[in-house]
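Following up on my earlier thread - several people asked me to post the actual chain instead of describing it. Fair enough. Here it is, all 210 residues.
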Amino acid sequence: MTVLLTNLRNAVLTGIALTAVVLAIYLSLNDGALVGDAFWPFMLRWLHVVCGIMWIGILWYFNFVQIPTMPKIPDELKPAVGRFIAPEALFWFRWAAMGTLAFGVFLAALKPGGLLIDAYTLDAGNGFSNPSVVIIGLGMWMGTIMWFNVWFVIWPNQQKALNIGNAHASLSAEEKAKSAKKAGLFSRVNTVLSFPMLFCMVASPHIITG
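Reply from S.P.:
Thanks for posting it. Predicted structure:
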């Protein structure tokens, strides 16, 4: 057990193996059937949720833990956060955002009746008649805006602020501070959007009919 838990790769593989066991139990209870066309959209939804948990989890870690704690860290220790912790967190952060959006779009595209288009147009083609589609569309738009912020604002500015990959060594301290501030503000925007976005995603299939 110690070998499994002290190594992240082994722990993740163990989690995946346990998931396969749960799937095997499900199959045994369902006569080995994958419930036809419903299984693969379910798998996309599962991957969408897994990526979303990592994305929002790291977003909240930045905003609830790292950023508020940085002023309390002694100056001689702060470079360790910028050089080692933040770049690693940003790697998983941005790719989790990509996975969340990609799996969510694929899932919507597989839904019958053109859900992807209806959601992104907020059901305008049907006179905004389906509350569930409107709400999931609002959630998708907020998620898309958040994804855009991650890839095209937060990540580029964090690269400059932290000199990730030593590609911005020539930037002045003032320029790095400006980039850090911009990344921080857009990260805070994403934190604000994360609450209504998650509400929309949960509300659409559970409390809103239409």
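The chain has two domains: 1-33, 37-206. That should answer part of your original question.
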